[in-house]
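Extended Data, record Putative CocE/NonD family hydrolase
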Amino acid sequence: MRWFQEWIGNGPDQAYWSRMDHRANVGRMPPVVHLQGGWYDFFLPGMLTDRAALLAAGRTVRLLIGPWGHGKGLYTRDGMRDALAALDAALLGRRALSGVRVFVTGANRWQDLPGWPPAHEPTPWYLHPGDGLNRMHADPAAGPSRYRYDPAAPTPTVGGTTVSMSSGPADNRAIEARPDVLTFTTAPLAREVEVIGPVRVRLHARASIPHVDYVARLCEVSPRGRSVNLCDGVARLDPASDIPRDSDGVITVDIALWPLAHRFRRGHRIRLQVSSGAHPRYGRNPGTGEPLATTLALRASIHEIFHDPDHPSALWLPLTEETS
């Protein structure tokens, strides 16, 4: 596993990766480019960045995003049709498809968009103590929610944007029952809520050590209690992280989750998970600041998530015009 040791032994900004960086080759790409990904594809954020660069370079770009993980869409009817159309355009001179076509999970339909992201209203859903999540600020007297993270028994992950065959949606109830996972959940929705675009979470947090991760995962909870993951993201922090800190040691952490197109059904609930691990999707943070490739020590940590009006931790969802 020498290659794996090399990967985790070289940080993202080190020269080791320069030979694999093809951003400078955008001008050498063909005039017609077909991009295909999925909501559970670990390459999706990079693909969206590539699309923007290709459009800026004058290329005709077709983007298809389906309800699948990496590499699983090509062999579907929709994926194959788009891929063959791109080949016809490149080899036979036929009209190339352009624009964006996404699968809206929950609604189980395809939708054509003029671009990405589409017009939307970033809308905050505020975290409340005791598993609450709604559009109102928490009570000023609300104390923080707490948990303990131990990298010797890291918080696991199920489904999501993994490389394995088990990627995609999964039942998260066993994960949410752990003491190192916080959940914040809405009441049953009185009407359907549709979101298409980027998702982010802002946490106001305090940790007992400086080297920590914060993981946020968005789920939908059915009336029978099954919690299914839609997207997630992570922020890894250290003493050099450029983030706001107040005099009490409370930090402001912004977490970019994977984008999505999803319709939450009436009677279902929106849930946000907050933790400090998602192993093995994200390599566990040992809490020591030592390199992941060589560290032998592990350090547990205590975390507080604040949600009073002065520290309005929130989930920001991209509501479509129909539901904003």
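Summary. The helical segments are 2-9, 44-56, 77-92, 173-176.
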